[in-house]
Amino acid sequence: MITLYDYWRSSAAYRVRIALNLKGAAYESIPINIAPGKDEQFAESYATMNPQMRVPAIIVDGHVIGQSMAIMEWMEETLPGPSLLPESPLDRLRSRAFANVIACDIHPLNNLSVLSALRTDFQADDAAVTRWYQDWIRRGFTALELTVADLPRTPFLFGDRPTFAEIALVPQVANARRFDLDLSEFPRLVEIDAAARQLDAFIRAAPENQARPAT
């Protein structure tokens, strides 16, 4: 069984939960409370094991490996079950590129450590932090909406099943909604998000269906 170091609201961990569910893989979730003021990722026991001090991370052959996109690639290479990528090489490239706009361009600018730094180092108030958060999602989603505009109108972006693209999109749309971003400019992204969230793998991975840390 796979061991997943997890946090219920982490969008990166959310991606990995979706991917594990799509693969039908059994896993044990070990919660790491990364909320400000809790900071369990910095505890010596976790930091020694995972020097990145982030979630998610998984244990593979006794080694702790982080980074959600790398974990998803590992799943695709090693785990049985439905593929997490489209069939054609071009669509595989497109799906990976779509996912990486979210994982590499949008998410790093909006993670908890950045938002905390905005508040503590630059004295940003809640309104300023929200503007920052919304702006970077809007920029990324604008590019993604244009990127997929001319794709065939299939149930998901690259065919009849979700791939890396949807696995990355759904958690980021959830974040956008949490920060009250108007999504009306992104109808195709909203449509795909709605379709994916009907699937059991996405439902079981959703933050609201995870165990909450004690407050």
Protein architecture, described:
The chain has helices spanning 11-23, 44-49, 68-78, 89-106, 112-122, 126-148, 164-178, 187-196, 200-205, and strands spanning 2-6, 27-31, 57-60, 63-66. By secondary structure, it is an alpha+beta fold. The protein folds into 2 domains: 2-82, 3-Layer(aba) Sandwich (Glutaredoxin), CATH 3.40.30; 89-201, Glutathione S-transferase Yfyf (Class Pi), Chain A, domain 2. Strands 2-1-3-4 form a 4-stranded mixed beta sheet, covered by helices on one side. Strand 3 (57-60) and strand 4 (63-66) form a beta hairpin. The two termini are 29 Å apart.
List keywords for this structure.
alpha+beta, single chain, 2 domains, Thioredoxin-like_sf, 53% helix, maleylacetoacetate isomerase activity, GST_Zeta_C, 4 strands, isomerase, Maleylacetoacetate isomerase, four-stranded mixed beta sheet, 215 residues, globular, Glutaredoxin
SSE layout and pairings?
Layout lengths: L1 E5 L4 H13 L3 E5 L12 H6 L7 E4 L2 E4 L1 H11 L10 H18 L5 H11 L3 H23 L15 H15 L8 H10 L3 H6 L10
Parallel strand pairs: 1-2
Antiparallel strand pairs: 1-3, 3-4
Helix pairs in contact: 1-3, 1-7, 4-6, 4-7, 7-8
